[in-house]
Amino acid sequence: MANEAESVIQPNDILSIQVTSVNPQAAEIFNTPTTPNRVSNAGSTTVVSGEAVGYLVNPDSTIQFPVLGNIKVVGISKSQLKKQLIDSLVQKKLLVDPIVNIRFLNFRVTVLGEVGKPTVVNVPNEKISILEAIGMAGDLTIYANRENVLLIREIGGVKDIKRLNLNSNEIFTSPYYYLKSNDVVYAEPNKAKVRITSQPWQLIPIALSGVSLLIIAIDRIGR
User: Does the residue 214 lie in any domain?
Assistant: First the structure.
């Protein structure tokens, strides 16, 4: 099975950062704010809950963190950021024995092409394989080229495009088996689909549609 490399933080990511310590009141200022949502129960009781807003990673690669100010986060993993925050909080004597938990609030992947239902898949637990993502998009159609599935991933601001063979056992040991946030999976049509659409007036709109989907997907991961 493939080793799952930890995702690195990218511009426009949204991070939930929760801080606790032996003094909860002292740690409260460092926690991600929440937005209240009112939920009515049987028309009589109103329950107020909240959803984490998160820290948006700015185009300059930083987040604005309480007390500590601007912190550069792009290009490092959650584990590295966690250690950095703990070290800063301790060294500045802001907290005693702080515990920091970080997660992505916008972890999602896009699945396009010859699948049952092209879709954007939200991944709350931040772990999903390419096969799971395709399954959540309605699986590959009979016209999908299973030996030539495209994966588009942004690494350090550069878009990396890989072609994967889902019929090969090597897929399970591939570093691309587990997807990362903002990955785009595109299932290309097989020869049977190409033959069906071999007439020029049929092929042009389909080709344009496929190109448009890829342009939209590539633009999305570049934001």
Answer: yes
* CB-based contact 190:145 (threshold 8 Å): yes
The pTM of this model reads 0.71
pLDDT per residue as tens digits for the range 140-188: 999 999 999 999 998 777 889 999 999 999 999 999 999 999 999 999 9
In angstroms, the CA 136 to CA 130 distance is 10
The Cα 57–Cα 45 span in angstroms is 37
User: Is 37 a residue whose pLDDT tops 50?
Assistant: no
E strands in 26-156: 34-41, 45-52, 55-56, 62-65, 69-72, 99-104, 108-113, 119-122, 144-155
Those residues with Cβ within 8 angstroms of residue 52's Cβ, 6 or more apart along the chain or in another chain: 16, 32, 33, 34, 105
Kindly state the tokens that stand for 107: 């972890």
Domain encompassing residue 46 = 14-104
pLDDT tens digits, 61-86:
999 999 999 999 999 999 999 999 99
Q: Among residues 97, 89, 87, which one has the least CA distance to residue 66? A: 89
Are 134 and 217 within one domain?
yes
Q: Are residues 189 and 132 in the same domain?
A: yes
pLDDT score recorded for residue 3: 61
β-partners of residue 20 are 99
Q: Which helix (H) or strand (E) holds 137?
A: none
- Return the amino acid letter for 144: A
Q: Which run of H or E residues covers position 185?
A: strand 184-189
